[in-house]
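Please review this one:
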Amino acid sequence: MEDRLEISNSKTKTIGLIILGALFIVFGLNNSFLGLIYFSKTLSYIFLGIGSVVLIGGIATLLLLKGPRVILTKEGLIYNPKTNGFVKWTEIEGVTGYSLNNHHTLLIHLKDVEAFIEKQKDEKVKKNMKRMLRIRETPLSIDPSLLEISRSKLKETLHEYLVKYGNS
């Protein structure tokens, strides 16, 4: 196990997202212009809307979110490198999985949640963490859907780091 592990977004998953968005747009436009497959107007607009959002999100992810998304060091977990989001291994209680409509997220459970939230400097971050605490019972989560590592491998790696460096 390395002392520092940087996990970035997967380019192939992001390109797949862009292709999916383009396909949704094509299906939405299909009824409007070509009429090859009959969809109701409402369904066509839904396909166009979802496709546009997915396409724009995929392009934005590809262009704007460069660099590592999650960094594991022997000191702690950097969960948001752009905003210096950091939590020490000694503050982490455990990692569990959460699934909603087949979308999986890893939840980072903290030993002293209130103290961690109060340590945050940005009021927007504090407010978002309090909202996440109400929804998922923890303020921190990692969405592995676009990462270059699988959810199960990421969870396993987080557990390894927690066992190795969490008792320091």
In short: The chain has a mean pLDDT of 81. The chain has two domains: 10-64, 68-165. Helices lie at 11-34, 41-64, 113-119, 123-136, 151-165. Residues 31 and 38 are 6 Å apart (CA to CA).
